[in-house]
Design brief:
- The chain is α+β, with helices and mostly antiparallel strands and 256 residues long.
- Helix content is 23%, strand content 34%.
- The strands form 2 sheets. It has a 7-stranded mixed sheet with strand order 1-2-3-7-6-5-4, sandwiched between helices.
- It starts with 5 loop residues before the first strand and ends with a strand.
- 35% of the residues are buried.
- The model has no long low-confidence stretch (mean pLDDT 92).
- Biotin (BTN) binds next to helix 1, strand 3, strand 6 and strand 7.
Length: 256
């Protein structure tokens, strides 16, 4: 049996922040920080992540993959795929993934991934890589329902399964699956990850509107992620845009 260092916290601002801190202090790869609730849970694009007690799973795993910083988008895709596969196996659901990190059930988001990097100075070997992968997973809806601003877009795993949900089982299977997919990535097999990811792509054949970091809107058909994990969109004029950052909105499906 693998013994794992799990840091369990009742409350913290963000498990990603704790992971970056203890990671920089030398925490071993595979260390997991899990919190009952977060006061400053954060997501992509500086959004906050609702982290009420008893509602979800909020955890971060520390990894030290031998990857270059430009490969971080691939880690996010690998982790999203891993969480999908974990809940598929455990609860017989078929989630979709909206690039880069939204996990959807019935078209609404139930989980998100936030990967961040840091580095640790090691006296003997120099720089040690540090990647923290944070996962927020809504297991149950909040007692009074989702807040009005999330109502249309958020869901919880329990609303899509008829089995009892165990937070501990979800945590264990997700952590194991993330380590496994990232290991494949380190071994150079992003191709298989990408193939499996694309089987779950919520944007496949759909028209997307991309709001660039400068606030411009680009509308076009999704071509899926490229070999670097970066989303491409082809607009009406045939120009292919690579989405490095910014927000993506799904519109209708292309007919024909
Ligand atoms: C997103 O959808 O944009 C990503 C959301 C990631 C939320 C999780 S909750 C655990 C970890 N700690 C954080 O502050 N964020 C991640």
């Amino acid at each position: 049996m693998v013994t794992r260092n799990i840091i369990r916290l009742d409350v913290t601002d963000s498990t990603n922040s704790v992971a970056l801190e203890v990671g920089q202090q030398g925490a071993a790869p595979g260390t997991v920080i899990v919190a009952e609730t977060q006061t400053g849970g954060r997501g992509r694009l500086n959004r906050s992540w609702l982290s009420l007690p008893g509602m979800g799973l909020y955890f971060t795993i520390i990894l030290r993959p031998r990857l270059t910083p430009d490969q971080l988008p691939k880690v996010t895709l690998a982790a999203g795929l891993a969480v999908c596969k974990a809940v598929e196996t455990e609860y017989a659901v078929l989630p979709k993934i909206k690039w880069p990190n939204d996990l959807l059930l019935g078209g609404s988001k139930f989980a998100g991934i936030l990967s961040e990097t840091g580095s640790m100075q090691n006296g003997s070997t120099g720089q040690e890589p540090l990647v923290v992968v944070g996962v927020g997973l809504n297991l149950f809806p909040p007692a009074g329902g989702f807040p009005v601003e999330l109502k249309e877009r958020a869901t919880a795993l329990s609303l899509h399964v008829d089995r009892e949900i165990s937070a501990e089982t979800v945590l264990e299977t997700c952590v194991f699956a993330i380590e496994k997919e990232v290991q494949h990535l380190v071994m150079g097999d992003f191709q298989t990850i990408l193939q499996e990811w694309m089987q779950r792509d919520a944007s496949k054949d759909k028209i997307l509107t991309w709001v660039t970091p400068k606030g411009q809107k680009v509308t076009g058909v999704s071509l899926g992620p490229d070999v670097d994990g970066i989303l491409r969109i082809r607009d009406r004029a045939g120009t292919i845009h690579t989405v490095l950052s910014g927000d993506i909105n799904l519109a209708g499906k292309i007919s024909g």
